[in-house]
Design a protein that fits this description.
CATH architecture of the domain at 161-255: 3-Layer(aba) Sandwich
Order of helices and strands: HHHEEHEHHEHEEEHEHEEEEEH
Number of helices: 10
Largest sheet: 9 strands, mixed
Strand content: 25-35%
CATH topology of the domain at 161-255: D-Maltodextrin-Binding Protein, domain 2
Number of strands: 13
Distance between the termini: 47 Å
Helix content: 40-55%
Mean pLDDT: 92
Low-confidence stretches: none
Length: about 290
C-alpha cells in the first residue's frame, strides 16, 4: 500500500462519491474505481457500500480508515522530524486560510515560497474563519478573520476597514432606505455590521436583506443597483472612485475586520513552517 492509496480512501470518505473524488483529484472515474478495488482486494474486505447517492463505510471500512489516518499522520510526522533534524527546508506544511485572504493575498505568497522551497509539500484548506477555528489543531498555520485564537500564538497581519457601498448617494439630511446585500461569512462579520446599523438607524434603514454565497457575487449585485453592500477595503479599493460609499465608524473609530496568523507554540522549530510564517509576517497587505 502506498500513501497515495490511504489518501484516496480519506478523500472518498470526505466527498462521498467516486465521481466527485475523481474530479477533485483530477484523475478518471475508472482509475479511482480500479484503485479502490485494488485496496479492497489488498485488505480482503469491502471498504464502502455503493448506494445510489453516496459511498457508505462498512464496519471493516471504518477500521481501515482509522488506520489510513494514522499512517498519513505518522508519514507527516517523520518527514517533519527529518526536516527539523537536517535543517533543510522540506517536509509538509499544512495551512488553513480564510477564503478572502486565500483569494486576494495567498497566491503570490505561496508562489514565491514554493519557488524557493520546492521540497515542501503543501496541504491547503480554505474556508470560513469559524470553520477553521474549530479544526485549528489539525494545521501548522491558520490565517483567520475576526477574533484571534486565544489558545495559540496569534499575530495581527492587518486591520481591514469596512465601507458601505451603493450605486445611489448617501444623503446627509434624510433617511436612506435600501435593500442590504450580504455575503456568506462568519458571525463576527455580521455582528460588526448589525452593531453599526443599530447605531445609525436614523440615517440608514435596510428595507430587506439579500443573502448571497460569495463576496464577489455581493459586489456584482451592488454594482447592478440591487442594494447596498458592506465590503472590506481589501476587496474594494478599485471601487472607491466609481461608487458612492461611506466608512463604517463608531465613536470616530473605523470599524475593521482584523486578520490574524495563528499557530501553536513551538511549531516554528520546523524550518518549513518558520520560513512560511516569516514570509507572511513580512508581507505588506494594505
Amino acid at each position: 500500500m502506498k500513501i497515495d492509496d490511504y489518501e484516496l480512501l480519506l478523500k472518498l470518505k470526505e466527498i462521498g462519491t467516486i465521481r466527485g473524488t475523481a474530479k477533485a483529484i483530477l484523475i478518471s472515474q475508472p482509475a479511482v474505481t480500479q484503485r479502490l478495488k485494488y485496496i479492497e482486494d489488498y485488505f480482503g474486505e469491502a471498504i464502502f457500500i455503493r448506494t445510489s447517492k453516496s459511498l457508505v463505510l462498512t464496519p471493516a471500512g471504518e477500521l481501515i480508515l482509522d488506520h489510513a489516518k494514522k499512517v498519513i499522520q505518522e508519514e507527516k510526522a517523520i518527514k517533519n522530524a527529518l526536516a527539523q533534524s537536517s535543517g533543510e527546508v522540506q517536509g509538509s506544511l499544512s495551512i488553513a486560510c480564510s477564503s478572502l485572504v486565500s483569494q486576494r493575498f495567498l497566491p503570490s505568497i505561496l508562489g514565491d515560497y514554493t519557488n524557493e522551497f520546492p521540497k515542501v509539500a503543501i496541504d491547503l484548506v480554505t474556508g470560513i474563519s469559524e470553520d477553521i477555528k474549530r479544526e485549528h489543531k489539525n494545521y501548522h498555520v491558520c490565517i483567520i478573520r475576526g477574533e484571534k485564537l486565544k489558545e495559540t500564538v496569534s499575530e495581527l497581519l492587518f486591520e481591514d476597514p469596512l465601507y458601505m457601498f451603493d450605486t445611489e448617494p448617501f444623503p446627509t439630511d434624510e433617511l436612506k432606505e435600501r435593500p442590504l446585500i450580504s455575503f456568506k461569512s462568519d458571525d463576527s462579520m455580521h455582528e460588526l455590521v448589525d452593531n453599526w446599523l443599530y447605531h445609525h438607524q436614523k440615517e440608514i434603514q435596510p428595507i430587506k436583506m439579500l443573502h448571497v454565497d460569495q463576496i464577489e457575487t455581493c459586489k456584482q449585485f451592488m454594482q447592478q443597483g440591487l442594494g447596498m453592500a458592506v465590503l472590506p477595503k481589501s476587496v474594494s479599493e478599485g471601487m472607491m472612485e466609481d461608487y458612492p460609499h461611506i466608512p463604517l465608524q463608531l465613536d470616530g473609530n473605523s470599524v475593521t475586520r482584523d486578520t490574524w496568523v495563528c499557530y501553536q507554540e513551538g511549531v516554528r522549530n520546523l524550518p518549513q513552517v518558520d520560513q512560511f510564517l516569516s514570509a507572511v509576517l513580512d508581507q505588506k497587505f494594505l
